[in-house]
Each structure stands twice: as C-alpha cells, then as structure tokens.
Design goal:
It is built from eleven helices and two strands, in the order H-H-H-H-H-H-H-H-H-E-E-H-H. The protein is an all-alpha fold. Helix 4 packs antiparallel against helix 5. The structure holds protoporphyrin IX containing FE. Protoporphyrin IX containing FE binds next to helix 4, helix 5, helix 9 and helix 10. The site of protoporphyrin IX containing FE has 26 residues, from helix 4, helix 5, helix 9 and helix 10.
Length: 264
Amino acid sequence: MGESINSESVEKSSASHPHPDVTGRYYIPGFPIGEGKTDYEKYLRTPELLSLQKTPSETVSPDELLFQVTHQASELWMKLMLKELKALVKAMNEDKLWVALRSLRLVHDCQRLLIQQVDLIGSHISIVEYGKIRVVLGQGSGMESPGFNWLLEMAPILGEAFHQLLTRRQMTIRQIYTDYQDHMELHTLAEALMDFDDLFHKWRAHHLALVARTIGTESHSLKGLATQVLQKGVKTRFFPELLEIRSTLTNESGLAYGGQPLPN
Ligand code: HEM
C-alpha cells in the first residue's frame, strides 16, 4: 500500500541520466523506476507486472489466467479506491465538499468496473475448469482479499467523518433530505455516500450470483455453506441511517393516502 519511488531508485536513476540520453531526451530524477526495453515498459514495470501470472505450463486449467487476471486487476482497482477514500475523508474533515465529491465519483466508477469483472468471470469461467483451479488455491478465500478488507475498514471511517461534518454544520440527516434544495452540497454528498454503499451492495449481490452459477448454492466452502456466508454480507449496509431516512419519509407520506400495515 502507498508505494512511493524509493530514495535509492531516485538516486540511481538521476545519477545515470544527468545528461540527455542518445535520443536527446532528458529524464527527470526518479525515471526510470523499472527494467524494460522501452520507456513504457520501464515506467509501467510491465516485465514485473506480466510475470505475476502463471505461465501456460504452470497453469492447471485454460481458465486459470482469467481467474488470476480478474482477481489481480480487482486488487489494483481497490488499491486506487483506498487512496481516493483516504482523500475523501481528508476533504470531508476539511469541509471541502466538492473535493470530496470528486474522489467519490472516481470511487463509484471503480466500483462499476469491479461489478463488471465479477460478471465477466461469471459468464466465461467453465464450472469444470473452476473445479481444477479451486484445488490449487490452497486455503485461499476471497475473504482474505487485502483490497476488500481495506474497503470494509474504511466504511465506518467515512461514516464518522460524515457525522462530524453534519455536527459541525448543525444539521441532521432529516434536514438535508427534507430541505434538500437549501442544503444541496450536503445532500449531494449524502447521496454520493449512498451510491458507494449501493454499489458495494451490488458488487456483493453480483458476486453471489457468480458463485451460485459457478459452484452452486449448496456447496461447502472453507468458511461454511458458501452462499449462506455471502448472503450475510449482501445484507450488510454501511450507512443504514441513509436508508432509514427513505423509509421514514416514505412511511410519513404514505400515511397521507391511508396506508395500512399488512395483517399478521
Ligand atoms: C470463479 C469465481 C469465483 C468464485 C467461485 C468465488 C467464490 C467465493 C466464495 C465461495 C466465497 C465465500 C468465502 C469463502 O468460502 O471463501 C467468496 C468470497 C469472496 N470473494 Fe469470491 N469467488 C470468485 C471470484 C471472485 C472475484 C473475481 C473476486 C474479486 C476480487 C472475489 C472476491 C471475493 C471477496 C472479496 C469475498 C468476500 C465477500 C464478502 O465477505 O462479502 N471473488 N468467493
């Protein structure tokens, strides 16, 4: 997490490029940071990146590359999300709501990509091939995903920063929904947090559908009956008060047209 160009590589590279190279190009200190034939390869460290997947002779299944790439790419997008979520908390703490919203927009788009990736693997992985991959995963479980666990840790921190913001502004959630036109900044931020919660919930629902079509609903995993474990997660919401306000306001307005509770 939080990788930076280390001082050793900066020193080495600035020392090796004090002058323009043979092509006449100048390199700023810190470049290149990796090995490779071209600047593209050196900057993006593609030789290392592309060696992080099993070779064809090492794979146990033709679908194993699909499995590895989907998971590795997801971890990278979650790494970016974590960075943006930290920026979001900082911006909320500093009352910079448009800065906060800018970070959240990027986070939402990363979440949409993550949803597409579970859909993609679900539509393409063969259930027989997954059976072969499963046995080489060791005790590995998606629940150990570092990216996913960072996101779970960030959610209460976001909720707390939002509550502190409301307290500083002497506002309640109810006010920013009922009088939303007067509190558009806070209202928009609350809705963007709702989107984050919703998209996380949708990822879990799509992943559950993927698991159901890949290993079935009655199979056992390391953590118990797979779909039961995952269903519990699907029911979890990060900001329940943002959902509750909808029920509260709907029920209040429903009373006006004589809504009746269902008989037991
Ligand atoms: C063939 C594809 C997949 C299968 C069969 C599968 C299966 C499962 C199962 C059975 C679980 C429940 C926990 C356990 O028993 O280990 C789980 C959890 C999880 N998997 Fe997957 N998975 C797949 C793809 C993915 C992908 C592409 C990701 C992307 C990062 C992912 C991330 C996770 C995460 C984060 C959890 C924990 C979810 C939660 O706590 O709500 N999985 N997976």
